[in-house]
Amino acid sequence: MTDKDIARINELYKKSKTPEGLTPEEKIEQAELRGAFLASVRNNLKGQLDTIKIQKPDGTIVDLKKKHQEKYGN
Hints:
This protein has one domain (3-72). 66% of the residues lie in helices and 8% in strands. The chain has three helices and two strands; from the N terminus they run ααββα. It has helices at residues 3-16, 24-49, 64-72; strands at residues 53-55, 61-63.
């Protein structure tokens, strides 16, 4: 997701709030851009969560990525 894509999302949002609204083509573009944005956010969050390690009170360290892979096989 580039800054240009985010700017376009905002532009389409602002236009959707005007009396003229969006054309059917712009509505499709808006939905596609929003989907791409959400996918980008999810991937970034997953990347951050995959790097987290938790230290238990007994001093052992749990790698959340490995724990998730063991539990869900991903």
